[in-house]
Amino acid sequence: MELHEHYETFIERKEQCIRHLNAVKATMKLMMIGGVSIYANNNQNLELCKSLYKLFFQLLLMSDKFDEMIKFIQNLTNSQRENYYDDQSFLYDIDRNFWEICCVWKDEKTIRQLD
């Protein structure tokens, strides 16, 4: 569940970065024709940097959770895995969520390639 929350926050941060990047691009175009001050551009650049930092931090949190999950699963013996999968539905949920997230990332990558 925590991994899923990190993923949802990552998506929000990614969308925020895209908005800031589009604002910077629009401001740069206006600056080229002389319609915007440098102060506005510097402020937008700063906001873009902040949002990129937050996005990177969220990615770091997700990778830490993946690492914890993988280490936990690797430390289980085969019989323990079977018992956990039989007795503990949370491991089944982790496994299912892991593959769902991988599929979503694959779908987003495919969509980006089509754009």
UniProtKB/TrEMBL annotation:
It comes from Dracunculus medinensis. The lineage of its organism: Eukaryota, Metazoa, Ecdysozoa, Nematoda, Chromadorea. It holds the Pfam family Fry_C. Residues 1-78 form the Protein furry C-terminal domain. InterPro entries: Fry_C (IPR045842). This is Fry_C domain-containing protein.
